[in-house]
């Protein structure tokens, strides 16, 4: 059901690199799952509104006041970016967004 | 029907509180007893991924009792001290500040939680102690805990069999008395199904009843945290502590949390119990069907009115789930990109490669499968045919339940189509593993509360079978009440 090209394209969209072997097994697994899911086309849903969430809650707001859960100190810095693989002072270091070629 | 306790489940929450009150042991002693037991038994079971040296969480001021005893908790809070000194296990998708949370994945193998989940804050205020974090299918994707990046967990009833999933570690820990209670998360059955396979009680609250803040997200419209316990009373007690509105989770409802332990003995005569005829189709193992029907007869003998109902769109629920679930997963797992935390590749030259390689190297096969399926279903040209269509059929499934609840008060049936299968038996067929959730996913899709209680052992497999009770939104009280009385009747 899914072509090799489609699997490659979607993996790219999902930012996951897949090997040849993975591509083969993904194609097989996804095709059988999609076949199963295809049954849904038999169901008549004319005039039905989609159900995205079940609580029925709308506009769950809170007052615009600080909750005081975090103190703005050095420890907070460590908690928030201390686990970044590369950092410098208070900044996270990443590879260049724009290529220099 | 004779139902004997086939496993020595050890201490219940009430046992711990009685023991502490009578001075039979201190909180530290009971914590050490469980810690020592974990040291000897966990290697065989692989229920825990990490253990804590000292699980005694201090909140508020310690209050000295009986000279030697120090108990913790925050007395000013509602349900404070309800779980004083009671040691628990926490699924590794729930954050405890300062400790590692892996979500069963290599991509978070060394991730140190930056804050406490709201349920953890609540447990700390109630004086509970923490033994460690339990094994799970990677990012909660699975029905057997075989998808964990850290090896499968074994079912304490038979070490060659799975404990169910994705909260398999938590279920095994409770069933093997390696903790007094545990927390798990349930997106499509991941608390109820392992509870069923391990012969213990597992509750999934109504969507919106318990905060998801601090739960590593899988599918945001379906996830709920729930207790795994040795009996129904303990389940109600833990629910009291973890339930409630949370300003950190805008999907929690502002309604008051009742005392779920208050009306467990209230009469169930004339209660209308619905049996969906669609639950007894092909795919249901005869040994499971036998136990379920026996349990339904028991309910009838207890005075309940058994009413046959129909859920016409039940056959589509699994397909709906396996569109919505991967779609929401593909969005929630986008954050694991090797930039801010978690595993990051050393093989990248460009930013794009950082993403591609980190995710490829850090994520397991099932997460990749679901992310790609979800990305496909949400992509331009397919969104209407898949995601939108699934959400419309979801509305039809909800309508089926709404109609049924006009005629009945609760709905019952099997939790899982069979008892625990052998490790490795289904792992090469993803679809076969998905089918394990057939009776549990409709409950998540509609956001209803559901509980699984043990109802005996299968005559062929000799493994535990679970009986599922499904309630109306925010009516955990009724399913807890019926389960509690059924549990007594099944002894």
Total number of helices of chain A: 3
Sheet having the most strands of chain B: 11 strands, mixed
User: Percent range for helical residues of chain A?
Assistant: 25-40%
Number of strands of chain A: 2
What percent strand of chain A? Answer: under 5%
Quickly give the CATH architecture of chain B: Alpha-Beta Complex
Short summary:
Chain A has helices at 4-13, 20-37, 74-81, and strands at residues 87-88, 91-92. Chain A has 101 residues and is mainly alpha-helical.
Characterization of the model:
The complex is a heterodimer of chains A (101) and B (491). Chain A is mainly alpha-helical. Chain A is built from three helices and two strands, in the order αααββ. A two-stranded antiparallel sheet of chain A has the order 1-2. Chain A is flat, with a radius of gyration of 23 Å. Chain A starts with a helix and ends in a 9-residue tail after the last strand. In chain B, 34% of the residues lie in helices and 14% in strands. In chain B, α4 runs parallel beside α5 (192-198). Classes of the chains: A mainly alpha (101), B alpha/beta (491). At the A-B interface, α1, α2 and α3 of A face α8, α9, α10, α11 and α12 of B.
Which terms summarize this structure?
heterodimer; A: 101 residues; mainly alpha; Histone, subunit A; two-stranded antiparallel ribbon; 3 helices; 2 strands; 36% helix; 4% strand; flat; B: 491 residues; alpha/beta; Amidase signature (AS) enzymes; eleven-stranded mixed sheet; two-stranded antiparallel sheet; globular; disordered N terminus
């Amino acid at each position: 059901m899914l072509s090799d090209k489609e699997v490659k394209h979607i993996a790219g969209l999902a930012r996951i690199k897949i090997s040849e072997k993975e591509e083969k097994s993904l194609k097989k697994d996804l095709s059988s799952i999609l076949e199963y899911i295809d049954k849904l086309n038999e169901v008549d849903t004319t005039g039905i509104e989609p159900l995205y969430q079940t609580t029925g809650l709308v506009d769950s707001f809170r007052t615009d006041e600080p909750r005081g859960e975090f103190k703005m100190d050095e420890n907070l810095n460590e908690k928030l970016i201390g686990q970044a693989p590369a950092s410098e002072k208070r900044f996270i270091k990443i590879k260049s967004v724009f290529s220099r070629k | 029907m004779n139902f004997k306790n086939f496993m020595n489940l050890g201490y219940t929450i009430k046992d711990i509180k009685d023991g502490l009150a009578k001075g039979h042991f201190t909180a530290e002693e009971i914590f050490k007893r469980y810690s020592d037991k974990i040291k000897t038994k966990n290697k065989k079971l692989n229920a825990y991924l990490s253990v804590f040296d000292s699980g005694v969480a201090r909140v508020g001021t310690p209050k000295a009792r009986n000279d030697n005893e120090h108990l913790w908790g925050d007395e000013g809070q509602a349900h404070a001290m309800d779980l004083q000194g009671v040691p628990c296990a926490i699924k590794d998708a729930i954050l405890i500040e300062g400790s590692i949370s892996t979500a069963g994945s290599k991509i978070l193998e060394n991730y140190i939680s930056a804050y406490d989940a709201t349920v953890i804050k609540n447990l700390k205020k109630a004086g509970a102690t923490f033994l460690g974090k339990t094994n799970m299918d990677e990012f909660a994707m699975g029905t057997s805990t075989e998808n964990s990046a850290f090896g499968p967990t074994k079912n304490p009833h038979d070490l060659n069999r799975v404990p169910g999933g994705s909260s398999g570690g938590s279920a095994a820990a409770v069933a093997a008395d390696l903790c007094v209670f545990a927390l798990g998360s349930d997106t499509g059955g991941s608390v109820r199904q392992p509870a069923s396979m391990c012969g213990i009680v597992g509750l999934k609250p109504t969507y919106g009843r318990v905060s998801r803040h601090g739960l590593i997200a899988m599918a945001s419209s379906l996830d709920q945290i729930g207790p795994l316990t040795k009996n129904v009373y303990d389940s109600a007690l833990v629910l009291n502590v973890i339930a409630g509105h949370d300003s950190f989770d805008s999907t929690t409802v502002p309604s008051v949390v009742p005392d779920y332990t208050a009306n467990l003995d209230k009469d169930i005569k004339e209660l209308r119990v619905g049996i969906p005829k669609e639950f007894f189709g092909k795919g249901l193992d005869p040994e499971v069907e036998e136990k379920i029907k026996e349990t339904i007869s028991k309910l009838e003998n207890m005075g309940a009115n058994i009413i046959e109902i129909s859920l016409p769109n039940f056959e589509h629920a699994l397909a709906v789930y396996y569109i919505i679930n991967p779609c929401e997963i593909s969005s929630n797992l986008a954050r694991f990109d090797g930039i801010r935390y978690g595993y990051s590749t050393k093989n990248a030259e460009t930013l794009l490669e950082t993403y591609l390689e980190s995710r490829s190297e850090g994520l397991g096969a099932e997460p990749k499968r679901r992310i790609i399926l979800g990305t496909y279903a949400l992509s331009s040209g397919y969104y209407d045919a898949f995601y939108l269509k699934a959400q419309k059929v979801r509305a039809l499934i909800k309508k089926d339940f709404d109609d049924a609840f006009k005629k009945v008060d609760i709905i019952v049936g099997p939790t899982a189509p069979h008892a625990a299968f052998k490790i490795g038996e289904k792992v090469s067929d993803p679809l076969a593993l998905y089918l394990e959730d057939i009776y549990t996913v409709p409950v998540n899709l509609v956001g209803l509360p559901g509980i699984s209680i043990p109802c005996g052992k299968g005559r062929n497999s000799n493994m535990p079978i679970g009986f599922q009770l499904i309630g109306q939104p925010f009516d955990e009280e009724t399913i807890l009440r019926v389960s509690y009385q059924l549990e007594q009747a099944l002894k």
